[in-house]
Design a protein that fits this description.
The protein has 9 helices and no strands. The chain starts with a helix and ends with a helix.
Length: 223
């Protein structure tokens, strides 16, 4: 990969990735507090200050590694990252089984909202004849990063948000069995992600569907 292109990609993706993961984690904290758990608030994690949420590997090393390794792939680069998980004590929720659905869903929903906001920014830039390639590229990256992060986290294996949503929806017996997968969930996801199974069968189809439903109608306003 050309070094200049690498620096350009870092400059384009840095802000969208930082916003995406910071707001994602803060959303969990805000919704948890709404339903009765103030753990994140007491630990100073219910904040939009990105320094409180940065994970050295997930926020910095992993996105850069993916940027390096996927930049030459058709359709690349593929950038994914995560922040330090916001601590939530589900036992403090007023109705733990029901409320955990809303707490878990808050992160992906925040990313879908950010993707829409980035799309609106792109529409505004084009509509006002702003043709600066950097600003347009950042807005486009914001759309992609947030859609990918949202659908990735909706994969129904705990500890991902989709897994916790599913635990809250299933009957207690099935929910208990799925919750027992959580210690191994990260390894299951990696085993599916590395060979491309998760990307081909989950991330790509859902990103395309989300783009078609949420983003394409907005961008059509300036075409």
């Amino acid at each position: 990969m050309d070094f200049n292109n690498l620096i350009q990609n870092i400059a384009i993706y840095a802000l969208p990735v930082l916003f995406a993961i910071t707001i994602h984690e803060a959303a969990h904290g805000y919704v948890a507090r709404h339903f009765g758990d103030s753990t994140a608030y007491m630990l100073g994690r219910m904040t939009l200050n990105p320094l409180k949420h940065i994970d050295p590997f997930g926020t910095i090393a992993m996105p850069l590694l993916l940027l390096f390794t996927t930049a030459a792939i058709p359709g690349g680069p593929f950038v994914l990252g995560y922040a330090k998980p916001v601590p939530v004590n589900f036992a403090n929720l007023r109705n733990p089984k029901r409320d955990m659905i809303w707490v878990a869903a808050a992160g992906p929903v925040s990313n879908f909202i950010q993707a829409i906001l980035w799309a609106l920014l792109l529409v505004a830039l084009v509509a006002t004849d702003v043709h600066e390639r950097y600003f347009l590229a950042v807005a486009q990256a914001g759309i992609v990063v947030n859609l990918v992060l949202a659908v990735f986290n909706l994969f129904p294996v705990p500890p991902l948000d989709g897994g916790r949503v599913l635990v809250g929806l299933l009957p207690r017996g099935a929910a208990y069995q799925l919750a027992r997968v959580e210690p191994f969930g990260f390894f299951i996801v990696l085993a599916l992600l590395i060979p491309g199974i998760l990307g081909a069968w989950w991330i790509s189809p859902l990103v395309r569907a989300s783009y078609t439903v949420l983003i394409a109608p907005l961008l059509s306003l300036v075409r």
